[in-house]
Amino acid sequence: MKSVLIHSCCAHCAAYTVDYFRRQEYEVTAFWYNPNIHPYMEHQHRLEAMQSLAQEMNLPLVITEGYDMISYFRQVVGHESQRCQYCFELRLSKTAEIAHQMGFGAITSTLLISPHQKHDLLREIGNKVVEEKGVDFMYADLRKRYSDSRHMTKGLNLYRQQYCGCVYSEWERYANIKIE
Ligand code: SF4
């Protein structure tokens, strides 16, 4: 059976994405590595929501140990306006590495369901990180299903975040600004 390791940024984006790949007859495993989520307790709330969804969907979930926040900041400080590029690369390259170690055939990301993310960049970085890892990057434009995914998690009473993840995005969200 085909297998895919899905980098999962939150339960609400994961629900439809998991369902979509299952319907394509993939054996699906979710993967949690999100050192871009700040502060730490926000990270924990989103992780707990993801664990609850995994239980609900009978979904295997691989969780990286620790909290790599320092690696995230070492990548992005000095180029904050392009931080998403570094953030995608950090998370997707870890996904490719773990997929390679665990023998998965492919990787993808729940970021592909979000209309707020840069799809061309995600596709470019996804294809780059799988080079020499012996796995495929599965691109799927699921943006039209964003609200369907939220509808799927509605009754589960899961923690729902109010900003993308990093402290910069939290600042942009609440101060209604754009970091240039
Ligand atoms: S805005 Fe979101 S995708 Fe961009 S760097 Fe922050 S957490 Fe990562």
Topology pattern, helix = H, strand = E:
EHEHEHHEHEHH
Shape: globular
Question: Hey, roughly how much beta strand do the residues contain?
Answer: 5-15%
- Average the pLDDT over all residues and give the rounded result: 97
Q: What would CATH call the architecture?
A: 3-Layer(aba) Sandwich
What would you give as the CATH superfamily?
Answer: HUPs
Number of helices: 7
Overall SS class: alpha/beta
Could you give the distance between the termini?
45 Å
Biggest sheet architecture: 5 strands, parallel
**Can you tell me the number of structural domains?**
1
Instruction: Kindly report the spatial arrangement of strands forming the biggest sheet.
Output: 3-2-1-4-5
CATH fold type: Rossmann fold
Q: Which ligands are bound?
A: iron/sulfur cluster
CA gyration radius, whole angstroms: 15 Å
Which consecutive residue ranges, at least 5 long each, have pLDDT under 50? Answer: none
The helix content, as a percent range, equals 40-55%
Name of the CATH first level: Alpha Beta
Task: Note the topology.
Blueprint: E1 2-7, H1 11-23, E2 26-32, H2 40-56, E3 61-63, H3 69-76, H4 83-102, E4 106-109, H5 119-129, E5 136-137, H6 146-153, H7 167-175
Parallel strand pairs: 1-2, 1-4, 2-3, 4-5
The structure holds iron/sulfur cluster (SF4).
Residues 36, 83-84, 87, 164-166, 168-169 line the site of iron/sulfur cluster.
Molecular structure report:
- The protein contains seven helices and five strands.
- Helix 4 (83-102) packs parallel to helix 5.
- Helix content is 48%, strand content 12%.
- A five-stranded parallel β-sheet has the order 3-2-1-4-5, with helices on both faces.
- It has a single domain, classed as HUPs (Rossmann fold), CATH 3.40.50.
- The mean pLDDT is 97.
- With 180 residues, the chain is an alpha/beta fold.
- The relative contact order is 0.21.
- Iron/sulfur cluster is lined by residues 36, 83-84, 87, 164-166, 168-169.
